[in-house]
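Holo model, 2-keto-3-deoxygluconate. Inputs:
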Amino acid sequence: DFDIVALGEPLVELNQTHKGQQQYLQGFGGDTSNAVIAAARQGARCAYLTRVGNDAFGAQFLDLWKTEGVDTSGVQSDDDAHTGLYFVQHGPDGHAFSYLRRGSAASLMTPALLQSGLIERSHFLHVSGISLAISTNACDTVFAAIERAHAAQTQVSLDSNLRLRLWPVDRARAILRETMRQADLFLPSMDDMQHLTGNNDPERTLDWIRDGGATGVVVLKLGKDGSIIDDGKTRTPVAALRVDAVDATGAGDCFAGSLLARRCQGDNWEDAVRYANAAAALSTLGYGAVDPLPRAEQVWERLKSLGG
Ligand code: KDG
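Output:
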């Protein structure tokens, strides 16, 4: 059995390592894949549900997940569609993504992907705004996955991960609102929510989420200002850990995966969020979404050095 099964799209990553120059380092990305690898590095038993192309990059992903200890029995391979790809470019306002993913194998997923029974055998199902956005059939697949999770008492975790290149904001708002109602854990970022609600006040944002019908635990991520845990009764702020980031790609995914892993290992919400904050901060110290993801020993060391 598994602690976490995630559902979404892996993307080959080409990351610009010298600002303004045309040098790109190949790595791996895809928010839910990043999250599940981060969780596995914290000791969680993980599985992934997706489709990859029957191509060199699909094979690299299968190798990666095997190396990381992520179960791939729910990964389908597609002879007629490619594995998706994205570029990360770094500028004065942080990083920006360019996608080459339309028609990718993962975007062709259908609810038939869920027949492996992995959701029924996991404690958490983790999905994201990207899983919902890549195509209408992927969106259907996420809703079918949530239905299976509810029937099996698997906890549903949702990261907002809003990518406005992938869908219009009105559709994103409607679908994310519906999905957050169905989630046991909702992990929105303040940046994402500002696009959806038009305001940048954390308290009002949490009110919007509750008024919209979310009943689970909500952890609102405020970037350098840390996060707020709203368990439906109280709102608890947790400070962030300051680091000099090299590349923040995948930091939110590391936060999600580490948080879920620590919850499965028995942490209360505050301890799990503090741990996830430290893991996410450490994940920004190198280029790429996956390569710099820290292991449990590194996170504990950092927390210890802070006296935590
Ligand atoms: O959170 C980081 C991801 O956004 C990145 O790895 C690429 O999955 C990706 C996407 O769709 O943007």
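Residues 31 and 42 are 17 Å apart (CA to CA). The first helix runs from residue 31 to 41.
Archived with the compound record.
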